[in-house]
Design brief:
Elements: H1 6-15, H2 18-24, H3 34-45, E1 55-61, E2 64-75, E3 79-86, H4 97-111, E4 116-119, H5 126-134, E5 138-145, E6 154-162
Parallel strand pairs: 3-4
Antiparallel strand pairs: 1-2, 2-3, 4-6, 5-6
Length: about 170
């Protein structure tokens, strides 16, 4: 994702219904303003990837953007946490996610030189949990957590994938 495209990510959260945000475990009151979020992304894009707070990928299907993935809590060369989102409700539950997640994981392992990649969706949001399993992530545990600054405290499931070429 390029800096010019971060509006897509910002709009996704700000324009989502309260019901959808609840399913994601996102607290609308914790969302930065659009302007503050754009400024934070601009500052992050100004540093090398190895020093960034986060990175993101756009998912395209037939030349159209259908979703995105992001990685944060990055320890370059070691680990990161990824997030996954299909933007249009009409595109959810159609089986696209697992392939997008596999490709995103491949990109994150390469770009961030990772050994491990984690994902920690809301435990009661079945779609990303099934998607992670289908994409080859291994279930680790379920616990109470606040996965990111925009989330509320919730029950999450932690999934992990190790670098494919590691033993």
């Amino acid at each position: 994702m390029q800096l010019a495209e971060v509006g897509l990510r910002i709009d996704y959260f700000h324009d989502s219904s309260d019901e959808h945000l609840q399913r994601l475990g996102v607290d609308r009151a914790s969302l930065p303003t659009r302007e503050a979020w754009r400024s934070a992304y601009a500052a992050d894009f100004a540093v090398p990837i190895a020093d960034r707070e986060g990175v993101a990928l756009i998912w395209e299907l037939d030349g159209h953007m259908v979703g995105f993935s992001s990685a944060d809590r990055i320890v370059f060369g070691e680990e990161a946490f990824m997030h996954l989102h299909i933007v249009g409700p009409e595109l959810r539950h159609r089986g696209f996610g697992a392939e997008f997640v596999k490709e995103s994981a491949r990109c994150y392992f390469q770009m961030l030189q990772l050994e491990r990649l984690y994902c920690e969706p809301n435990a009661y949001n079945t779609a990303p949990n099934r998607t992670l399993q289908r994409a080859g992530f291994r279930y680790m545990f379920t616990h109470e957590a606040k996965p990111s600054p925009i989330n509320f405290q919730q029950t999450t499931t932690r999934w992990m994938m190790e670098r494919p070429d590691s033993d």
